[in-house]
Write a structure and sequence with these properties.
By secondary structure, this protein is mainly alpha-helical. The protein is 59% helix and 11% strand. It is built from 5 helices and 2 strands. A hairpin with a 3-residue loop joins strand 1 and strand 2. Helix 2 packs antiparallel against helix 5. The longest helix is centred in the first third of the chain and has 22 residues.
Length: 113
């Protein structure tokens, strides 16, 4: 289960960032934002056995994408709910944390230049 969240501001900043810094620096910022997203998702997920919480991950894909997901197959049922269980989102808020972190960190770095 992976959720895609697009942010025009983050993409614009990332383009400016790509012109100013090395690919390694960009990848580092994406990884930092991914860790923040994982931490947020793990904080929010309902814990019974801890399997779902421990299955939350982030992964940098390419030069401009961070994927956030959960490896447990029942993750979507928790995230979106079922006919018998209300939704308890954890991945989408984690994704929003990635966007916020990335926007803040990129803006800081661009402003320093």
């Amino acid at each position: 289960m992976v959720i895609s969240i697009n942010s025009t501001q983050a993409k614009t900043l990332l383009l400016q960032f790509q012109q100013a810094l090395s690919p390694a620096s960009i990848r580092s910022e994406l990884q930092i934002a991914g860790v923040e997203g994982v931490n947020e998702a793990k904080r929010l997920v309902k814990v019974d056995t801890g399997k779902l919480q421990s299955s939350v991950y982030s992964e940098v894909r390419g030069n401009d994408t961070v994927a956030l997901g959960a490896r447990e197959e029942y993750g979507p049922y928790v995230e979106y709910g079922t006919s018998k269980q209300n939704a308890k989102p954890f991945i989408e808020p984690g994704g929003l944390r990635i966007v916020t972190t990335l926007e803040q960190n990129l803006q800081r770095k661009i402003n320093k230049q």
